[in-house]
Amino acid sequence: MTxxxxxxxxxxxxxxxxxxxxxxxxCPRCRYWARERTDARRADDGARVSDCNVHIRxxxx
Length: 61
Ligand SMILES: [Zn+2]
What we know:
Oligomer: single chain
Bound molecules: zinc ion
Number of strands: 0
Number of helices: 2
Low-confidence stretches: none
Structural class: mainly alpha
Strand content: under 5%
């Protein structure tokens, strides 16, 4: 039995970072991630910054 190997192609790193999404005001979750993002940026942790941006961008309201 052979399982099909999923091809996990990595997306090329973007040269230009996307603009930061604005956290929805009044949403504690978005506020939390916005704060995490500020901390991450201060720590020069780009991976964490974009991670926080994803959370903010994908947060359903
Ligand atoms: Zn939110």
